[in-house]
């Protein structure tokens, strides 16, 4: 989507993929090009400086031209790669007549001041040796000899001599400032040129003398001995005019910005479109800037992808994609990988048993900015990493340590994140305190607090989208219990924040709006692949599982220790939660993603249990899930630990239902998909299995709708024991229940339409189509009992009548 940080009104050349090489290479002008990415915060900060520089040196054209190229624009990405751009902003100076993209020299701009950049242009212009840009006046200091013969050799009326010290730039800058003016020339004279200094009686540096072609000269009288004063003076001289053939460099392309249709988003939700776009951008665009991946960079990529493959709660084909990239990277044993080889692995595989697909599009929904250069990729990257840190808190047994996700993020940002200044800042924060993080919960909180620091630093700057002001997050309306006041000062309730993070960044709060829907074929293949993996133990999924097991083994003792620690932590957490159950903690707990979270937590615990029971438990779990998908109404899963947890959870959360904040109401999609399936069978089954569930039953009878059983299959364990949405299963169940494909798409894509469909379905069932088996059993039993009762009464009266008939009457008196 076009629309960078600069406009045609700026005095610089807006380059595009088709004009970059044509304009910059083999040019008789030198070029200084800023390669930027419109999403890069530092590029946004830098843009006013670059614009000011362009205005400051616009009269240095055509000796040197300034250009810009937006590498965030899809069309330009390859060109940026070709010019060796790995971070933003990158300034490259191309001498006149440069032949190759590699000829560009990086220009460092530490101070980011217009002055230092201008001086840098002068220095780079002086680097021209044999092929001096034809339009550029001489910049070297003048000698006595040159001055003496100047008017014979040059047809001008005036020669201005700027006397200055060696390190001064004034003389050269004034020379370039006057480049487009006729009838006047400028030369610098160094203070060390004693003969000339003496001849013109110069005592201060800088100072200027004007020589006229009639042999007279005078001191240039200015208020301040500085560039702008000299330039102004010279431009006012009689007979000095701006050249009629002033070359003006018009922008090559009038960028037409087609406004994208606004995608409505709800800030209390997380959008899969943002997350998948982040993955695509990170893996296929940011990583692609490095033609060869070696050393620490390769290591960082491996950790990043490993964490994604493990924790990203993606759609099945996206998970296949991540797992296959991860497997491939794990098998890389050499010291380096050419990106071309990796590119093949990053290509979508729609065919075969396990389609591995990650959309090639970038679609921002929750991260959509009011202008193309606001928000987008960095926003999605933050979201992705928050999600991953939260996922790690829920899958402790998979974790290799509290720093696993943060370390991967740090590595990615350090070695790949295009906004180099942002990366430096983040690295600074990481170096300062990341190693103090000792639990996965702390990791999630660390990232939250550091992100808020960045928010505070950037609030009110040019990078802030006016429609999405940078505030401390979560704001009060999203999470009232997160905020507290102590002695009149705002403080965060970190326990509440953690609960909120877990709810907000939970799979149940990820919405599929604007994602490319998976095709029925992909769904089927994914299912087949999973089933195949279960049966044959040969396909990729199982391979992943085995690898996962290997990893588990590798962890060995440490792993177990961590796990135990994890359990300990879990208990601590529970305690903490117990405390938090009082007023504040509750609302956050029952946030929109609650049901999903319950499931996840349930699974986490199940996981610990499973580990105790060994792999068999896991297989049973998988089998149970498959059976359920096949249409089995009852799961054979041992409910054990989870039941207790559920009871506890329901107990804890029930009353909160009454004061559900608005955020809860907004969260409709994933839970709503299943909300109407109030399965009384499994509820009663669980109810009788455990006394602990009595509480849950009470809650349910108070009006709490249980949709537990139906959200379970939405979150399944994949082959790497990795929890994920099982969208395939959700689709399948909905399909079985007779929803048309249109309604299905609606249900999955647009909360509104889907809900309508589901509501209608609910009414059908109310009319009798959907009585549960418990209802039917009770009816049959009642029917049977009443029949028996009638039969009994009938028998009793029959007998009674017969007896009365046969009994001899008392003799009447
Ligand atoms: C690692 C990193 C470092 C960066 N450093 C810089 C920098 O130095 N200079 C610069 O100009 N830009 C920097 N950026 C970009 C900047 O932080 C924003 O991402 C960008 O300006 C877009 O802002 P946004 O309004 O979309 O919200 P973002 O700050 O990108 O937040 C994205 C979403 O995350 C949620 N969120 C917000 N705060 C939190 C929080 N504390 N915890 C959990 N979730 C939260 C919100 O839902 C928000 O919409 C950096 C980005 C990253 C990923």
UniProtKB/TrEMBL annotation:
Names of required cofactors: FAD
Pfam family, one: Evr1_Alr
GO molecular function: flavin-dependent sulfhydryl oxidase activity; protein disulfide isomerase activity
A GO cellular component annotation in the UniProt record: Golgi membrane
Compartments (UniProt record): Secreted
Annotated Basic and acidic residues bias: 525-539, 546-559, 566-595, 602-654
Keywords for this protein: Disulfide bond, FAD, Flavoprotein, Glycoprotein, Membrane, Oxidoreductase, Secreted, Signal, Transmembrane, Transmembrane helix
Disordered: annotated segments: 523-654
Transmembrane recorded as keyword: yes
Catalysis performed (reactions): 2 R'C(R)SH + O2 = R'C(R)S-S(R)CR' + H2O2
Listed EC numbers: 1.8.3.2
UniProt-listed InterPro entries: ERV/ALR_sulphydryl_oxid_sf, ERV/ALR_sulphydryl_oxidase, QSOX_FAD-bd_dom, QSOX_FAD-bd_sf, QSOX_Trx1, Sulfhydryl_oxidase, Thioredoxin-like_sf, Thioredoxin_CS
First-level EC class: oxidoreductase
Residues passing through the membrane, by range: 780-797
Domain of life: Eukaryota
Chief location category: secreted
Residue intervals of the ERV/ALR sulfhydryl oxidase domain: 370-473
Thioredoxin domain mapped to chain residues: 1-126
GO biological process, one term: protein folding
UniProt-listed PANTHER family: QUIESCIN Q6-RELATED SULFHYDRYL OXIDASE, SULFHYDRYL OXIDASE 1
Its job: Catalyzes the oxidation of sulfhydryl groups in peptide and protein thiols to disulfides with the reduction of oxygen to hydrogen peroxide. Plays a role in disulfide bond formation in a variety of extracellular proteins. In fibroblasts, required for normal incorporation of laminin into the extracellular matrix, and thereby for normal cell-cell adhesion and cell migration.
Family: Belongs to the quiescin-sulfhydryl oxidase (QSOX) family.
Protein name: Sulfhydryl oxidase
Source species taxonomy: Eukaryota, Metazoa, Chordata, Craniata, Vertebrata
């Amino acid at each position: 989507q076009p629309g960078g940080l600069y406009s045609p009104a700026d005095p610089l050349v807006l380059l595009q993929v088709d004009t970059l090489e044509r304009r910059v290479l083999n040019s008789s002008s030198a070029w200084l090009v800023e390669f930027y990415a419109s999403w890069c915060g530092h590029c946004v900060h830098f843009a006013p400086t670059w614009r000011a520089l362009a205005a400051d040196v616009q009269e240095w054209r055509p000796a040197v031209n300034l250009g810009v190229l937006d590498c965030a624009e899809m069309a330009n990405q390859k060109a940026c790669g070709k010019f060796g751009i790995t971070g933003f902003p990158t300034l490259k100076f191309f001498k006149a007549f440069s032949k190759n993209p590699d000829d560009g020299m990086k220009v460092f701009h530490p101070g980011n001041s217009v002055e230092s950049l201008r001086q840098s242009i002068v220095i780079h212009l002086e680097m021209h040796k044999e092929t001096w840009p034809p339009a550029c006046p001489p910049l070297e200091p003048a000698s006595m000899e040159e001055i003496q013969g100047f008017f014979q050799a040059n047809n001008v009326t005036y020669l201005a001599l700027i006397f200055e010290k060696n390190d001064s730039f004034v003389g050269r800058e004034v020379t370039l400032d006057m480049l487009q003016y006729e009838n006047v020339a400028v030369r610098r004279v160094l203070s060390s040129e004693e003969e000339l200094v003496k001849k013109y009686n110069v005592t201060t540096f800088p100072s200027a003398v004007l020589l006229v072609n009639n042999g007279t000269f005078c001191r240039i009288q200015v208020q301040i001995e500085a560039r702008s004063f000299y330039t102004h003076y010279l431009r006012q001289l009689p007979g000095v005019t701006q050249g009629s053939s002033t070359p003006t460099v018009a922008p090559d392309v009038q960028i037409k910005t087609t406004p994208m249709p606004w995608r409505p988003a709800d800030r209390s939700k997380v959008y899969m479109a943002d997350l998948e776009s982040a993955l695509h951008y990170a893996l296929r665009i940011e990583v692609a800037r490095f033609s060869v991946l070696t050393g620490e960079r390769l290591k960082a990529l491996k950790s990043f992808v490993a964490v994604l493959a493990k924790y990203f709660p993606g759609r099945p084909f996206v998970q296949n994609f991540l797992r296959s990239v991860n497997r491939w990277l794990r098998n890389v044993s050499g010291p380096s990988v050419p990106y071309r080889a990796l590119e093949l692995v990053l290509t979508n595989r729609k065919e075969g048993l396990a389609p591995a697909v990650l959309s090639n599009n970038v679609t921002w929904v929750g991260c959509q900015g009011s202008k193309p250069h606001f928000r987008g990729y960095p926003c999605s990257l933050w979201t992705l990493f928050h999600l991953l840190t939260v996922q790690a808190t829920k899958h402790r047994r998979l974790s290799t340590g509290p720093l696993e996700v943060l370390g991967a993020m740090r590595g990615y940002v350090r070695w790949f994140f295009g906004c180099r200044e942002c990366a430096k800042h983040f690295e600074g924060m990481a170096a300062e305190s990341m190693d103090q993080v000792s639990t996965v919960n702390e990791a999630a909180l660390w990232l939250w607090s550091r992100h808020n620091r960045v928010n505070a630093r950037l609030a009110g700057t040019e990078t802030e989208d006016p429609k999405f002001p940078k505030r401390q997050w979560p704001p009060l309306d999203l999470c009232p219990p997160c905020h507290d006041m102590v002695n009149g000062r705002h403080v965060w309730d970190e326990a509440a924040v953690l609960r909120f993070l877990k709810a907000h960044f939970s799979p149940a709060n990820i919405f599929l709006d604007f994602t490319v829907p998976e095709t029925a074929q992909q769904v089927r293949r994914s299912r087949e692949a999973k089933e195949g993996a279960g049966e044959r133990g040969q396909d990729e999924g199982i391979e992943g599982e085995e690898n996962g097991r290997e990893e588990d083994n590798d962890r060995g003792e440490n792993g177990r220790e961590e796990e135990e620690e994890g359990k300990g932590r879990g208990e601590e957490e529970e305690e903490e939660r117990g405390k938090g159950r009082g007023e504040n903690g509750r609302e956050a707990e029952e946030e929109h993603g609650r049901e999903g979270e319950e499931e996840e937590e349930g699974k986490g615990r199940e996981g610990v249990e499973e580990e105790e029971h060994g792999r068999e438990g896991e297989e049973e779990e998988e089998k149970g899930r498959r059976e359920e998908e096949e249409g089995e109404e009852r799961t054979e899963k041992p409910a054990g630990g989870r039941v207790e947890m559920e009871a506890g959870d329901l107990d804890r959360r029930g009353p909160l239902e009454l004061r559900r904040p608005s955020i809860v109401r907004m969260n409709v999609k994933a839970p709503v998909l299943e909300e109407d399936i109030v399965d009384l069978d499994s509820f009663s089954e669980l109810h009788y299995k455990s006394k602990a569930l009595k509480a849950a039953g009470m809650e349910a009878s108070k009006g709490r709708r249980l949709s537990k059983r139906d959200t379970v299959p939405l979150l399944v364990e994949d082959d790497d024991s990795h929890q994920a949405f099982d969208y395939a299963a959700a689709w399948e169940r909905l399909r079985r229940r007779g929803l048309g494909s249109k309604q299905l798409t609606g249900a999955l894509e647009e909360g509104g339409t889907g809900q309508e469909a589901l509501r209608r379905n609910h009414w059908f069932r109310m009319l009798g189509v959907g009585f549960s088996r418990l209802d039917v059993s009770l009816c049959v039993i009642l029917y049977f009992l009443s029949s028996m009762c009638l039969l009994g009464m009938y028998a009793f009266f029959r007998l009674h009548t017969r007896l009365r008939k046969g009994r001899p009457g008392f003799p009447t008196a």
